[in-house]
Amino acid sequence: MKEKNVSLENKVILVTGAAGFIGSNLVMELLREVHPVHIVGIDNMNEYYDVSIKEYRLNQIEELVGKQESSTWKFIKGSIADKALIDRTFAEDKPAVVVNLAAQAGVRYSITNPDVYIESNLIGFYNILEACRHSYDDGANGVEHLVYASSSSVYGSNKKVPYATEDKVDNPVSLYAATKKSNELMAHAYSKLYNIPSTGLRFFTVYGPAGRPDMAYFGFTNKLRAGDTIQIFNYGNCKRDFTYVDDIVEGVKRVMQAAPEKKNGEDGLPIPPYAVYNIGNSHPENLLEFVDILQQELISAGVLPEDYDFDAHKKLVPMQPGDVPVTYADTTALEEDFGFKPQTSLREGLRKFAQWYAEFYK
Q1: Which of 66, 129, 237, 315 is the most buried (most CB within 10 A)?
Q2: NAD-dependent epimerase/dehydratase domain location, by residue (predicted)?
């Protein structure tokens, strides 16, 4: 087990992508569990998907803040690609811990809209790294730990499963995956050059209430509810390591508190205080079974009628460009270093999503 070496209490924590799915849930978990805590959130509120869901998440945060006495929350609407904004935020708020979750997500969207991936995932992350670097200027304490989102997409079409962080990941099959691998390389360089403790987290298919509408389970629900036909790729032979959002957040919170140690090598130069972990369920589910459970829970929550003809609304189709047939996380390192393994079953997670969906769209 790694020892905790970063206290979150009474610290300023910067969360980028704070109105996003993982970001907003992380902010709420920190507000509930760390007292006091001072959170600065940044999000550009772009229209990649329904902004009302992002506003819903921010409203949930505001409600929680209203119940706090000592903790604070500050939201900044803006892009991490805006260097002046990032530099100003670091200068004014002086974050001790930075969690970079802001990114343009989605594999298929990167094929048709590559520009936004370069802007957010590369330029934006560079701005964060530079701000972390200069947080130590003039002998300041600076950033104690930079935690950033990578993705299971970096594994590309690796044949070996489960995916382990030691695997070679030099053959991305989408621009999105290439930007995430680039983030890991950039973080490693900055950790080596400037002794910035950084940890990358490769997330595996995150789902749950108030999730991203571009994700399969949410898109399927929208289409089934509208009476449309859903397409199940690779003729239903895809397997995904679905990870419930609360499990992801618990993993992120534990990682935040244990930064890679700063130490020098035999040459007297810093050994990069750098780490990468998988966060996944390490239990891949067949897509057809996943959709079957989803349908059952949508009927149970009243989103679909009990006599819904599911077979009439599904179509098995070939693989999409940039997709991979299986994602499967080896989470041994996470378990050994943090004593943590995601526990939420697929049925339990989809039930919570279906209940939220019924309430949100009633």
Answers
A1: 129
A2: 13-279
More confident residue, 66 or 37: 37
Q: What is the Cα–Cα distance from 158 to 347, expressed in whole angstroms?
A: 28
The per-residue pLDDT for range 261-318, each reduced to its tens digit, is 999 888 888 899 999 999 998 888 888 899 999 999 999 999 999 999 988 999 989 8
Write the CA distances from 111 to 107, 174, 320, integer angstroms: 7, 7, 11
pTM of the model: 0.95
Helix (H, G, I), strand (E, B) or coil at 231: strand
Reported as half-sphere exposure (CB side, CA atoms, 13 A), residue 128 has a value of 33
What tokens were used for 40? 């600065």
Long-range contacts of 359-362 (CB under 8 A, 24+ apart): 360/53, 360/56, 360/210, 361/225, 361/303
Q: DSSP secondary structure string, 165-223?
A: TTS-----SSHHHHHHHHHHHHHHHHHHHH---EEEEEE--EE-TT--TTSHHHHHHHH
Q: What is the DSSP letter of 258?
A: S
Rounded Cα–Cα distance for residues 331 and 204 (Å) = 11
Known catalytic membership, residue 176: yes
CB atoms within 10 A of CB 5: 14
End-to-end CA distance of the chain: 45
For the chain, domains (ranges, CATH) are 12-360 (3.40.50.720)
Q: Which of 109, 176, 207, 274 is labelled catalytic? A: 176
